[in-house]
Amino acid sequence: MPEPTPTELVTQLTTLLDVEQIDTDLYRGPRQPGGVGRVFGGQVIAQALQAAQRSIEDAKVAHSLHAYFMRPGDENHPIIYRVVRDFEGRSFANRRVIAMQKGKPILNMAASFQLPAEGLHHQQPMPDVPAPEDLRSERELRDEIQDQVPEKFRRFFLRARPIEIRPVSPRNWFNPEPTEPVQHSWFRVCAPLPDEPALHRAMLAYASDMTLLGTCMLPHGVSWMSGKVQTASLDHALWFHEPFRFDEWLLYTTDSPWAGHSRGFNRGRIYSRDGRLVASAAQEGLVRLGD
Prior knowledge:
- By secondary structure, the protein is α+β, with helices and mostly antiparallel strands.
- It has one domain (6-116, 135-289): Porin (Beta Barrel).
- The chain is built from five helices and 13 strands.
- Strands 1, 2, 3, 4, 5, 6, 7, 8, 9, 10, 11, 12 and 13 form a 13-stranded antiparallel beta sheet that branches.
- Helix 2 runs antiparallel to helix 5 (197-207).
């Protein structure tokens, strides 16, 4: 079977995030085609954001979301999203979204929306890193070591993805050496998107769950591929600062200031190519060592 083209991959992701309204403030998120096992956390966050965005009836724009994961999602079932309109003001609105499978909540999310406005401005500067054109894609790096990938991971590890990632300092998935808990990666969707800012925000929410949790494991020389650690996202927060396009390169800079008690805390800054800080992220995850 031929591998999907970049356009087909992005179309699949767009369809995945196109939640269906089944009643007032009630939506159904489609399943990932060919998905097996646990649902990717970024998918649940992005679909929940889409449900919240579609409940907004004026020009307010999402500027932040805060989500808690409670149960792993199951790829065998669609996800139902119930939106609660907690607040509707002149400048701000709040939506609460409960994601459910088989009658049980798997995620709670609160999202805040604001009418565009001007005010004071400052930002942390963008790190000085190589341009994406000077780096190799994660797909190329994975293909190079495919013979080392255990059979049970091979399909997932080598599959074509709609998000192209170019790491500044590629990691060793099988024998990682302890390093500073900081990493930089360029990322974008691999084909053009329509001019729909809500879709670009949802796709960035989807991708913001990538590379983030792994940052707290860098100083300890472990990875999920080693089989020696169990990981799961516990919560996820995302703030949208400036307009952006996710079919253009964005730099994702992540760091981890703390880990302990089987948890790791991670932060992310997302910059546009011209140096604007367009979004920030934070996440705490379960990091439990095994044998």
